[in-house]
Specification:
Shape: globular
Oligomer: single chain
Number of helices: 15
Number of strands: 0
Order of helices and strands: HHHHHHHHHHHHHHH
Amino acid sequence: MTFFTVFFQMVALLIMIGAGYFITKKGMMDEHTNNQMSVLIVQIFNPLLVLASASNAVGQVSLDTVLLAGGIAAGMFAVFIAAGMVFSPFFEKDLMQRKIFQLMFVFSNVGFIGIPVISSIFGTEYVIYVSEFMLVYTLIFYTYGIALMDGKLTAASCKAMLNPGTVSGLLALAIIIFNIRLPEFLKTAITYLGNITSPMALIAVGFALANSDIRKIFGQPRLYVFSFVKLLLLPLLLLPVIRLVIEDTQLRAVCLVMFGMPVGNMPLILGNQRGLNVTACSAAIILSTVLCVLTVPVLLMFA
């Protein structure tokens, strides 16, 4: 898989982001529409794509490989938590704002962007591995993420772990474990519905870009340094480790791409809920998403 092959696949995703930008600027999409669309992605289409991926992977993907992906995901989050503790003081002096940077290091956009990237480069059957990253993400966010911001772990945060994302991930795991073959008509339906995820998620990114101050996004040098560390440096430092534990070159490439995903929305949402200034976080989300068009092909060259 050459640099330019992957690059042009990433450019296709960038065009979809551009479509969201154009639609928003033309007044065809507003905040209410975007919010409703985001709910549909998170609650309906994303979980269906995970289930479709699992059903299409039955007989092609072994349980050991899926569990290995889950273990790699857990290791990735452990490294990113440590990296956030080490590097965040270099980007922010204020203690509370520094917590936002710690969250930004840890919580990448493994679902919203990860699924479109993995399905476009490798195929939808590889989304089953993404579901493992999403499962671990949810567990880490509602434990470490909440505890970092609040200084404690609450029963409400633990209860929030039960959501459509984790349910679909567990069902996908059950499909692989018990070799469940869904009826063809059902598999076709959930596959078509799940395929809505990628373009809709990227249009939502375009909406965010259209409603942001371009100068604040692309005019902060520290965010370029942050993006370099998160999108390239950390994944490449982890590459020798996954070469040791993963023999399957495709799985290795998928995991490396997941390591290099841009900043996710959850740090922004958590910061907003706590009344923090999330301007830098908002800018980092969009900047890192745009930059991953270049960084993902570079990662795959090494993988």
